[in-house]
Amino acid sequence: MPSPPSSKIHLLTPPEPGKKAASRTYIIYFLTGNPGLVEYYRTFLTHLYGLLSRDTASSRDVEFQVYGRSFSGFEMNTSDIKTMKWRKQPPYGLQDQIRHAEEDVVEVVEEAKEQGARDVRVVLVGHSVGSYISLEIIRRLRAHGMAGEDFDTKIVGAVGLFPTVVDIARSESGMKASPFLKNSNFATFASILVSFLTCFLPVSLIAMLVAKFMDFPEDAAHTTASFVKSPFGIQQALHMARDEMFQIDTDIWDEDIWGATTPSQHPHPRPLLRFLFARQDHWVADSTRDALISSRGRYQGAVEEVGGMGESWKPVMEIDEREGWPHGFCIRHGVPVAEKAAGYVKDIVGQDLQK
Question: For this UniProt entry, which residues form the secretion signal (predicted)?
Answer without folding.
Answer: none
